[in-house]
Write a structure and sequence with these properties.
Blueprint lengths: L1 E12 L2 E13 L4 E5 L6 H8 L7 E6 L2 E2 L5 H11 E4 L11 H11 L4 H14 L15 H13 L5 E5 L7 H16 L3 E5 L3 H4 L4 E6 L2 E6 L9
Parallel strand pairs: 3-8, 3-9, 6-7, 7-8
Antiparallel strand pairs: 1-2, 1-4, 4-5, 9-10
Helix pairs in contact: 3-4, 3-5
């Protein structure tokens, strides 16, 4: 599904080049559940943003579903993102001027889903996440945990082929966090590819494979510890 070859990203300051990612070579199979781990500043979120086509300032090769992303225009990348990818951000990224309902409706409008179908899908998602009572509220009227639930619902509403999750349970109570991870596990078992960034060993145990980043390099690849691995 995804193949990265010698992907690098750096910032230039005068004559100094500071690398964020170095020679990233990575393949992600369709239906895989991959975890990216590493200390703060290792390049985890940067790698996730490149996979999600939210960052275009990098070098190397990136193929997504057979498409050469590195050769596409920003508009073509945006189309791929809208069609196939759901993103759960650590800082929510909800649209403050839209209600919960409208935030969930936006990804469906990008995919040209009929309005009658959109209403049904959004209502199902509101019910699934038990946020029906919040549908007319704005993000600033919600707690951090509620905003994260809406952000996860928005990522899933259009049934994406790939879910990218940056610390998806970071702002949730432990029980809510487990519910989200159990949901990701079910979606993965149904065929959705998931890539998550996390510091949590418990969350990593839901996946098939862990890559460790350090100073922008992939330094290790392991199977997760715990009984959930491979199940």
């Amino acid at each position: 599904m995804i193949k990265l070859a010698n992907v690098e990203k750096w910032y230039q300051a005068g004559n100094m080049r500071t690398f964020v990612l170095r020679r990233i070579n990575l393949e992600i199979r369709e239906g895989e559940f991959l975890t990216i781990m590493g200390p703060s500043g290792a390049g985890k979120s940067t790698l996730l943003n490149i996979l999600g086509m939210l960052d275009g300032a990098w070098t190397g090769e990136y193929h997504f579903l057979g498409q050469p992303v590195d050769k596409l225009t920003p508009k073509q990348r945006a189309e791929l993102n809208k069609k196939y990818i759901g993103f759960v951000f650590q800082s929510y990224h909800l649209l403050d001027n839209l209600t919960v309902y409208e935030n969930l409706d936006i990804p469906l409008s990008y995919r040209n889903v009929k309005s009658s179908e959109r209403a049904s899908i959004v209502c199902d998602m509101l019910d699934r996440f038990q946020i029906v009572g919040k549908k007319d509220l704005y993000p600033n009227q919600l707690s951090g945990g509620q905003q994260q639930l809406v952000a996860v619902a928005r990522a899933l509403v259009a049934n994406p082929k790939l879910i990218l999750a940056d610390e998806p349970t970071g702002n949730l109570h432990s029980s809510q966090g487990r519910e989200i991870m159990d949901l990701f596990k079910r979606l993965n078992e149904e065929g959705t590819t998931i890539v998550q960034v996390t510091h949590s060993e418990a969350n990593a145990a839901y996946g098939h494979r862990i890559i460790q980043l350090l100073d922008g390099w992939i330094v290790k690849e392991t199977a997760p510890a715990g009984t959930l691995a491979g199940s």
